[in-house]
Specification:
Length: 377
Amino acid sequence: MNVVILYGGRSGEHEISLVSASAVARNVSEKHSVRLISISKDGAWYAEDAAELLRIKTDSSATLAVHADEKKRVSVVPGGGKDATFKTEEGAIPADVVFPVLHGTYGEDGTVQGLLEMANVPYVGCGVFSSAATMDKEETKILWQHAGLPVVPGICITRADINDSNAYDAKVKLAVDTLKFPLFVKPCSAGSSDGASKATNERELSFALMEAFQWDNKVLIEKAIDAREVECSVTGNSVTQDASKPETMLTSYGPGEIVPKHTFYDYDAKYNDPDGAELKIPALLSNEQLTQIRSMAQKAYAAVNASGLSRVDFFIDRNDGTLYLNEINTIPGFTAISMFPKMCDSEGLGFTALLDKLFAEACAQFEAKSILRTSRV
């Protein structure tokens, strides 16, 4: 199978993508042929030489890079299909399946997924709608609430509210009065805790909102819960499950628990500080709680029409044990310390086998969609 890995991207998580994609590329089975396409921070696509793949395979500490060689610029052809989607001056790059290892904006938000749909090639992960909906934390909450699933209480403020001082002040006051300090402030559509911060008073809240609005035009203010952080991996196709193709059936792995050593599980704790958090797999919970979380993770996954893979994140209130859904990551991290592959591995699904499963899911999803009618003739 010809596997194309997309990495880099126009995102605040560009550097994380380089690390995740390096791990993915190292662990793809030798039975597949791998081609790398890098995306620069300004959005240009480049075909990488075979030497780049060899470099990171022979050095386990190496990280993929973006080589901006204009002679290797990649064009994407709508309707190109598996043999003619990606074009360079040197010819086409065959793609039986594409893995967009792209975290955050312009990669995890439905934009690349829409491009690959138009190109008519199979790709790993969620489709356009679920990618776009889950990238927006407010929209995710709405979908989960509609499905009867528990979410953390919060209030959304938009850029339009800033332009109407009365509306802005009223929403901030409502958040403080109803949610009470401490509060978490998060950009609705940023990942890896970019722009997120905790506020314990009105002054900190004001600064937190200014920071969050640098990352997005919609910002969530949420009640800061004294919580244990638990995550669960899910694979499968929530809409096109096929019992004859086991790889398409929903499966939960874990859950695992994160014990941050920072104020909260922020960007540094996730990616820069090797001792930023302690990971416990499985989470130190009762069998009943583990089963409940696995089941709720699948319900949360299905509620947003997810497919391929996702990591579903939970909070467990330390005071009363209440379980809340926090968020869902449709292209979770694949770094050496990332929870998604670790939870799969803890249940016997090693990295290479996991990738084979994801490729098979992507192809099954593509086949299921390709038989649908698009014309009356």
